[in-house]
Inverse folding.
């Protein structure tokens, strides 16, 4: 293992010379962003891909923005807002200087159209629930929007900061139809659509009128003329491009390369400490073997997360010793204490006391049932590596875990079935309630509640967390939900990723943001020195 690691670092050092002798090849004042994969389309209401959000945050705006702390809501298209005493109506007061890329002024009618289009069942948005229990959205005048809910929804402002809630131009949507976000796009963002060659380049140009960026940027207007989002599937090619002037910035950095890049004098690195992107293994709690709480607890006790994360992520992730990142709004420290920590001896004791006896083949047996379960997941390098580590740890305590990984083209379909006993997933979130309401509400079975977790106490806590007017009551409710889930070991938390962004020597002002996994967000402070 050490020899392989050393060879990998050596190969990386060869690919990344300290100083490039090649001339800078990018066009003047054009930022080239390198990424691993493309999106299927750039329609905010119809794509949940991070790769779509990366560009949509630059091409469009939302009513509100989320600051770098991932907690504070800031004005964006709405310069201020009011909430009714019953928590059911939000009144957004819009800026009056906003235009779309084609120069048309944005008004309240555009906001109403965009949100209603998002939540319209005909749009088939997979995330329309994020808009809350909408009763009606209406324009009170040209620059005032009333957003009325059936019941209070304390998550609303956080959800409206996500790219799904982007304001789009109705004329462009109706003109392009199904090809909106494929053949063109018209938004109010700092950059405007020029062209898209799928799986190659998405080209954007500066919005000449834009000056309404969020106040956590030093510059309210874009600083570069063009942005090219370039697909570069091979990690070594992406990293070498930063050194040879063929690329300017990327967040798609192999974990093993981060420390090497930090030592490169012509690469600038930025890290977001408040990054909420976690990996976990979830149990289908109604399937044989994993329906036994003793099995789920033993799995949590048996896995050496610290060693596993160190071996897989090389210091670019931390062990997930809780269901949520401690920096997220709504995190409950008492729930975190309920997550079992590494103790193989205690895991064996739990299984012994539950009647799981060691079989002749090294796998425990109870009532004729072998302690064996099947886990599904998408085929990724990290997933394959950490599942093998989990598999080895479980074998030592007498549990057999069988692994089946799928290519993403078929994997999502497989993960919607009942064929498996457990599964792995990684995901972004913005608050504790956002995460738990998505995954543990019984009404979200069979997906995304793939655990088939159905518990009236959990549902009641989540409903209260979403609807209570008093922030303290909401916090207590989501804490209660976290404790219930932790006590029942519904997941094996795996890792909490860190977000690193690498930029070329000519690129200044890059600061990792991280909303929904997106590093650059608006990118307003980014400038090029040559």
């Amino acid at each position: 293992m050490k020899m392989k690691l050393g060879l990998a670092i050596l190969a990386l050092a060869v690919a990344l010379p300290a100083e490039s002798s090649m001339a800078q090849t990018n066009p003047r004042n054009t930022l080239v962003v390198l990424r691993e994969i493309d999106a299927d389309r750039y329609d905010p209401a119809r794509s949940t891909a991070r790769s779509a959000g990366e560009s949509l945050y630059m091409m469009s705006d939302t009513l509100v923005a989320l600051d770098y702390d991932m907690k504070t809501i800031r004005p964006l298209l709405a310069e201020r807002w009011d909430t009714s005493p019953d928590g059911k109506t939000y009144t957004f007061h819009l800026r009056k200087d906003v235009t779309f890329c084609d120069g048309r002024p944005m008004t309240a009618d555009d906001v109403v159209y965009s949100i209603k289009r998002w939540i319209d069942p005909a749009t088939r948005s997979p995330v329309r629930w994020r808009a809350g229990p909408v009763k009606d959205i209406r324009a009170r005048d040209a620059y005032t929007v009333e957003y009325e809910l059936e019941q209070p929804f304390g998550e609303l402002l956080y959800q409206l900061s996500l790219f799904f809630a982007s304001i789009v131009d109705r004329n462009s949507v109706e003109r392009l139809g199904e090809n909106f976000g494929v053949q063109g796009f018209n938004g109010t963002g700092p950059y405007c659509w020029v062209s898209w060659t799928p799986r190659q380049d998405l080209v954007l140009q500066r919005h000449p009128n834009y000056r309404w960026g969020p106040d956590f940027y030093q510059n309210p207007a874009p600083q570069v003329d063009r942005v090219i989002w370039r697909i570069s599937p091979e990690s070594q090619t992406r990293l070498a491009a930063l050194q040879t002037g063929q690329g300017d910035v990327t967040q798609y950095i192999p974990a093993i390369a981060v420390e090497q890049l930090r030592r490169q004098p012509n690469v600038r690195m930025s890290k977001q400490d408040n990054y909420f992107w976690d990996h976990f293994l979830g149990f289908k709690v109604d399937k044989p073997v994993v329906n036994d709480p003793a099995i789920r607890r033993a799995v949590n006790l048996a896995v050496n997360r610290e060693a596993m994360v160190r071996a897989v992520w090389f210091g670019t992730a931390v062990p997930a010793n809780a269901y949520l990142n401690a920096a997220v709004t709504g995190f409950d420290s008492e729930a975190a204490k309920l997550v079992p920590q590494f103790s193989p001896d205690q895991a064996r004791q739990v299984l012994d006391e539950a009647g799981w006896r060691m079989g002749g083949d090294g796998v425990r047996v109870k009532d004729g049932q072998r302690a064996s379960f099947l886990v599904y997941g998408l085929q990724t390098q990290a997933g394959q590596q950490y599942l093998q580590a989990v598999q080895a740890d479980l074998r030592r305590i007498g549990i057999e875990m069988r692994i089946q990984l799928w290519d993403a083209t078929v994997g999502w379909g497989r993960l919607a079935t009942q064929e498996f006993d457990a599964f792995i997933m990684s995901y972004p979130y913005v608050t504790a309630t956002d995460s738990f309401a998505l995954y543990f509400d019984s009404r979200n079975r069979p997906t995304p509640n793939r655990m088939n977790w159905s518990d009236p106490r959990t549902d009641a806590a989540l409903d209260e967390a979403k609807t209570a007017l008093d922030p303290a009551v909401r916090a207590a409710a989501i804490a209660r939900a976290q404790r219930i889930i932790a006590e029942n070991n519904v997941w094996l938390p795996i890792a909490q990723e860190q977000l690193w962004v690498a930029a070329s020597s000519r690129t200044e002002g890059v600061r990792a943001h991280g909303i929904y996994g997106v590093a650059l967000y608006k990118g307003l402070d980014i400038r090029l020195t040559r």
The CA atoms of residues 40 and 80 lie 34 Å apart. The first helix runs from residue 2 to 15. Residues 1-10, 12-24 have pLDDT under 50 and may be disordered. The domain at 277-497 is CATH 3.10.105.10 (Dipeptide-binding Protein; domain 3).
